[in-house]
Design brief:
By secondary structure, the protein is mainly α. Helix content is 48%, strand content 11%. It is built from eleven helices and five strands. It is globular.
């Protein structure tokens, strides 16, 4: 299952990039991701070997951080239990236009545990949640293990992957330039607040985590960072000041970068404005290069 976790780490930014183009009518929806781990016998048996790793979050760096913290140790996979737990614990939202989906992946029979998978999936459907299943192994084994039946009952898709297969990323002539732009992009972030400095450091750490998988994953992450879904208003002044309720007077200057701590409010505003303009330019350059990159990948594929 470690191969599966690595694939999730590698594909996160590709998924974000695809969803950044999503629309509901004329509106562009927000993206929230929650994460559970299950089937790890280091987790308490009383919880069904299930642990909520992250509640629904729009913080893409935090999602990446939690994914990279996961390890596997083997154990029973209580699919019905983890589906039911996620339905009960998470705040799925009441908007009828929300698209709500579960993706559950594993390599044990779908029928394990004391919560019958069809009962859990029925509860999911009553909450308008679609259940998709991913079996880590060959197609027929997933069918006999009832993974396909779970997806059929959940109005979702049944998929299989070879969890030990290395994902092939297509290298393009635009990758190096995007990576350089990503480093420039990082310099446009102006942290603030209690967690600002640590969040700023985490952004760099997640860049490095992506690099451990493949250079192309760094490229995909950079593209995500140029999309509307990558918003850090909780710790970055450039994103924060675009919010209607943001107030510079509430900022504690001791929690700003050292070069801004002795500045006046007007000087800080001027600095943030310059970083905002610089960021917009860099993000546009990345988007234009990504169009060329995607065209190249499509042709190669």
């Amino acid at each position: 299952m470690s191969g599966l976790i690595n694939q999730a780490k590698a594909q996160l930014w590709e998924i974000v990039n695809e969803l950044s183009y999503a629309k509901c009518g004329n509106e562009k929806p927000n993206l929230e991701i929650a994460l559970y781990e299950y089937g790890n016998d280091r987790i308490s048996s009383e919880s069904g070997f299930i642990r909520k790793v992250l509640h629904f979050s729009t913080d893409l760096d935090e999602i990446s951080e939690r994914l990279f913290s996961l390890t596997t140790n083997g154990g029973s996979e209580y699919c019905g239990k983890v589906i039911q737990t996620s339905i009960n614990e998470l705040e799925w939202g009441k908007n009828k236009d929300d698209l709500k989906m579960i993706f559950i992946a594993g390599n044990e029979p779908f029928t394990q545990g004391n919560v019958f998978y069809k009962d859990a999936i029925t509860n999911a459907k009553e909450n308008d949640v679609v259940v998709n299943t991913i079996f880590c192994g060959d197609y027929r084994s997933g069918v006999s293990g009832m993974w396909q039946d779970g997806a059929t009952h959940g109005n979702g898709d049944y998929m299989t992957i070879n969890h030990n297969k290395k994902i092939v990323h297509v290298v393009t002539p635009y990758d190096d330039e995007i990576i350089i732009l990503n480093k420039r992009l990082n310099k446009t972030y102006v942290y603030y607040g209690n967690k600002g400095a640590s969040k700023f450091a985490s952004q760099y750490t997640q860049d490095m985590n992506a690099e451990t998988l493949d250079e192309v994953v760094v490229v995909k992450r950079a593209v995500s960072k140029s999309s509307r879904l990558y918003n850090n208003k909780n710790w970055d002044l450039v994103d924060a000041e675009k919010e209607a309720d943001f107030n510079y007077n509430k900022i504690k200057k001791k929690q700003l970068p050292k070069e801004l701590q002795g500045k006046s409010t007007e000087e800080i505003k001027k600095y943030v404005k310059s970083k905002s303009e610089e960021r917009a330019k860099i993000q546009q350059e990345i988007k234009e290069l990504d169009k060329k990159r995607r065209a190249f990948v499509t042709k190669k594929s």
